């Protein structure tokens, strides 16, 4: 089971979420894909994700593997530590509160016309969630593109230095090589 965790103001309609969904569906595994539309409120988003993980743990079957992009990578890092799950992090945010403090205000959702308000309270919640270092680094696989125009790939490479890493030259924050790494994500 894959729990795809989208980034800031994104949704289950994000390109990477849909590519993973199609890839699994093409293999007859469409039931292995989950991607909730998360609240912009970090506390609510983490509650949504925790509920999914805890409900899944009560059911028989394969354990959940987290796949988080950007802010979703930040959340996946925390959830991996909390629940002992493997996580693949795509251009993850390391200090999300620090990064997103300049984003206080209203934002149009990426895949709808909805206006989302991001507040200082949200920044504070992200700062409180920030880990000093990754727990159980062997459970984390970090994929970075050096051309990320939103987050500094070197910050993530240093923070996740003891984790599995794959770093590509070029690319961008959307992670242009996502289609090419699906089998590695599956095998991790």
TrEMBL record:
InterPro entries: AB_hydrolase_fold, UPF0227/Esterase_YqiA
Domain of life: Bacteria
PANTHER family: ESTERASE YQIA, ESTERASE YQIA-RELATED
Designated name of the protein: Esterase
């Amino acid at each position: 089971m894959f729990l795809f965790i989208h980034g800031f103001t994104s949704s289950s309609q994000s390109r990477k979420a849909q590519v993973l969904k199609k890839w699994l569906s093409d293999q007859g595994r469409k039931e292995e894909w989950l991607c909730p539309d998360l609240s912009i409120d970090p506390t609510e988003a983490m509650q949504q994700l925790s509920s999914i993980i805890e409900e899944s743990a009560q059911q028989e079957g394969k354990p959940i593997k987290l796949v988080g992009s950007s802010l979703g990578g930040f959340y996946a890092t925390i959830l991996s530590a909390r629940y002992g799950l493997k996580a693949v992090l795509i251009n993850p945010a390391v200090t999300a509160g620090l990064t997103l403090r300049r984003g206080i205000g209203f934002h149009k959702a990426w895949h709808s016309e909805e206006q989302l308000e991001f507040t200082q309270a949200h920044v504070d919640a992200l700062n409180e969630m920030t880990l000093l270092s990754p727990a159980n680094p062997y459970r984390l696989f970090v994929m970075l593109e050096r051309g990320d125009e939103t987050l500094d790939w070197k910050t993530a490479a240093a923070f996740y230095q003891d984790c599995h890493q794959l770093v590509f030259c070029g690319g961008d924050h959307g992670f242009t090589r996502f289609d090419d790494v699906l089998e590695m994500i599956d095998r991790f």
